[in-house]
Give the backbone structure.
Amino acid sequence: MSENGKCEFLNTSEIKPAYPEIVTAYQKAFSGWPWYEVSKCEDPKRRCVGGFCKLAIGEFCKDCNSIIKKPAYESDELVERFESIAASRPTSWYTESNEAGVTLAAIAWEEKTSTIFNEKYADNPNMNSWLESTFSDRKIIWLDEVFANTDLKPTGNLRNFGKMCTGFMESLNNPILAFRTINPSMTRAAERDFGDSAMVFKRQTDELPDRRDFVIIAMENQINNTIEDK
């Protein structure tokens, strides 16, 4: 193994044997900073941000006004979601591992931005017109999830971020990749590795009506005049 461990791009069939480790990494990653998605919000009105709670099962949530009963991400639920994505669109996986196991995993897929809005921004109608004006409903690569098991590798998990994104663009044959994030480390990694090819729209500003940063990485000279003007 190299200094950074083993790095692999995998198709949807090749990734299946790694699901147990990937699920563990996912649950570990999103239970910590900056998400703190430890359990599901029990309130039908979803007063907890994103429908998740930072409290452990068995604790009482004042926002939900109920006892927490379920983890944020259940194993079967995650696998079902991964399988559904793979069955419905071009999809690629990336993993890093060391002697202890999978330290980082990421999933990316290609779809029209109208589909991205329906699946990712149903609770934020303002993003529909923003995505339409930015992309004109073209197909892009959506970097859906990037997550690390810091128990196995505490630091340096975004060291290969640029190579990962470039690999997704190559494997899915599309020069435009985008993602949203509340993790400033992800935004900084895109700026570090792609420079002027990374366009960062900051959260909750006049230029972006959302609570998460939106990052576009474009490996072509021009996407369209709309993005150039933003």
